[in-house]
Each structure stands twice: as C-alpha cells, then as structure tokens.
Design brief:
By secondary structure, the chain is mainly beta. Helices cover about 15% and strands about 55% of the residues. It has a single domain (about 5-80), classed as Flavin-binding protein dodecin (Dodecin subunit-like). Strands 1, 2, 3 and 4 form a four-stranded antiparallel sheet that branches.
Length: about 90
C-alpha cells in the first residue's frame, strides 16, 4: 500500500524594513528568510507601516506571514527536511 501524504503548513511572521518602499521591505525580508526557512510557498501581508522622524518618512515596514509546506505521512509522523528552521 502506498503512503498517503497530507500536506500541513507552518506559518512564520516576519518583518522587513526598507528606506525606499514597502515592496522593497517585503522582498528583502523574503530573500533573507529563504536562506533559513525551506519550502516557502506564500507570503501574506498583514500590516504596513512607516517610521517617521522629524515629520519625514525614514523607513517602510512590511509585516507578513510566510508559509512553508510540510508533509504529514500516514496521519502520524511529521517529516521535516534537514536544515530547516524548527
């Protein structure tokens, strides 16, 4: 009988910052996160804000959740790839 795989997902919240834009903040954060979190599939923006000093915007921040896929084999044993964040 073949093993049936049921995917499960891990959600991790991260915050990116940039002096230029929210898009740049999000892109940089995902690229850094991808260095230690494996199998990233989705990034969902939860909040955007700005840091203000002296009446001027000095930084953009993007807070979002990144989703990693995991596999649950035979509804009992969780298999996590070596080198992935716990």
């Amino acid at each position: 009988m073949a093993k049936k795989e049921n995917p499960i997902y891990r959600v991790t919240e991260i915050i990116g910052t940039s002096k230029t834009s929210w898009e740049d903040a999000a892109r940089q954060a995902v690229e850094v996160a991808a260095g230690s979190l494996r199998d990233l599939r989705i990034a969902e923006v939860g909040k955007l804000d700005m840091k203000i000093e002296g009446g001027k915007v000095v930084a953009y921040r993007a807070r979002f959740a990144v989703v990693q896929i995991r596999r649950l084999i035979n509804a009992g044993v969780l298999s996590i790839s070596a080198g992935s964040a716990a």
